[in-house]
Backbone:
């Protein structure tokens, strides 16, 4: 889906700016971020290293306070972390001492045993880890560990899932298949996902809309709508056109 008419606004950045105090000075990291993300949308934040992508996610997740402006989710101001807004990081956040099942169940311990069982079994099936319920992270491949992370996030039925370069540590083939897995899961669960990447192709393969940020201090250069349905044809002229536009916005040439 896209953020077209009729879609419900989910996350709203209202003129968000962020500066950090650094060694006596002030470092302006984000300036005047104004953006609405709609329910069920998959939005990519694309920008060069250090432009403030992770900071923007952290503000949205309530881990950092904006210096100016505010973020609302469902109309309510974000003023701290919440179990309804979960993160999936590049570095594996799963617990090495817990099995796949135990890692996924951690966030839903407050539910009845029967509910826990139903949700974990369903999520394991969704991410394709059947048969590995009792395995420990050290017995899994990198891609499988990322599946456990995604499963753990999905199990809590969060309002918004934040993904900060979640596939960055994987090899290129696994990355490709994780992207199509993510799209399949997202289409089934209809979650709102805010996905950070500095990979142009990854953003075109995944996003409904791509928010292109400038180098620090990060400002929105343009929001690029990807009007392609899934599965996306990576060789189509429209894919190429979007890719060229993104490179142009990022100020880099993609011919060598
Ligand atoms: N807690 C902090 N205190 C001071 N400066 C910070 C803090 N967090 C981030 N910064 C600075 O803010 C800038 C943006 O950092 P951020 O991690 O948001 O970038 P990014 O776009 O996610 O980069 P990358 O693509 O490399 O992950 C950097 O210059 C960093 O040094
Ligand atoms: Mg980052």
Residues:
């Amino acid at each position: 889906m896209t953020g077209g008419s009729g879609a419900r606004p989910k996350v709203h950045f209202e003129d968000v700016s962020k500066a950090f105090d650094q060694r006596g000075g002030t470092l302006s990291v984000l300036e005047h971020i104004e953006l609405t993300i709609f329910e069920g949308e998959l939005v990519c934040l694309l920008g060069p290293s250090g432009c403030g992508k992770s900071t923007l996610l952290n503000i949205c997740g309530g881990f950092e306070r904006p210096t100016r402006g505010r973020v609302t989710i469902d109309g309510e101001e974000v003023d701290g972390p919440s179990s309804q807004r979960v993160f999936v990081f590049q570095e594996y956040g799963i617990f090495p001492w817990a099995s796949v099942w135990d890692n996924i169940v951690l966030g839903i311990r407050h539910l009845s045993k029967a509910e826990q069982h139903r949700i974990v079994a369903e999520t394991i099936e969704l991410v394709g880890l059947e048969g590995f319920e009792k395995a420990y992270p050290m017995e899994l491949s990198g891609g499988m560990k990322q599946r456990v992370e995604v499963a753990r996030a999905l199990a809590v039925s969060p309002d918004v899932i934040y993904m900060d370069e979640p596939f960055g540590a994987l090899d290129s083939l696994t990355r490709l298949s994780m992207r199509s897995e993510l799209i399949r899961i997202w289409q089934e669960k209809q979650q709102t996902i805010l996905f950070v990447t500095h990979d142009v192709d990854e953003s075109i393969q995944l996003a409904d809309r791509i928010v292109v940020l400038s180098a620090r201090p990060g400002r929105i250069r343009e929001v690029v709508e990807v009007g392609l349905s899934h599965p996306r044809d990576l060789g189509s002229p429209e894919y190429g056109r979007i890719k060229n536009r993104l490179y142009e916005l990022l100020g880099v040439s993609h011919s060598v």
User: Anything to note?
Assistant: The chain is about 30% helix and 25% strand.
